[in-house]
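Aim 2 progress update. The chain analyzed this quarter is reproduced below.
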Amino acid sequence: EVQLVESGGGLVQAGGSLRLSCVTSGFTFSVTRMRWVRQAPGKGLEWVSTISGGDGRTAYAESVKGRFTISRDNAKNTLYLQMNSLKPEDTGVYYCTKDQDYGPPKRGQGTQVTVSS
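Predicted structure tokens:
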């Protein structure tokens, strides 16, 4: 069974940093493309960043480019999101996701990030 468990969220002042983690199991993590998405209060899901399996190529939403860094540790089956220079508009629940052959992407329970101004 695929499992994704996010952690690392919290309350931080604007300009601060957080590092999110997503521990995975139930699939071959090293070759799997992974994403971070977020959901602000009262809004839909927003894509944040993607990292490919294999060569580890990355992509970022314009809103986080230059501030966030996605990475992975294949030995630990863990995905990370380093978030620097946080802004109040970064507030939301952050999820790591994995595409599935059928149905919507699999995601974990999420971790809450709150940035105060």
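The two ends are 40 Å apart (CA to CA). The first strand starts at residue 3 and ends at 7. These observations will guide the mutagenesis experiments scheduled for the next reporting period.
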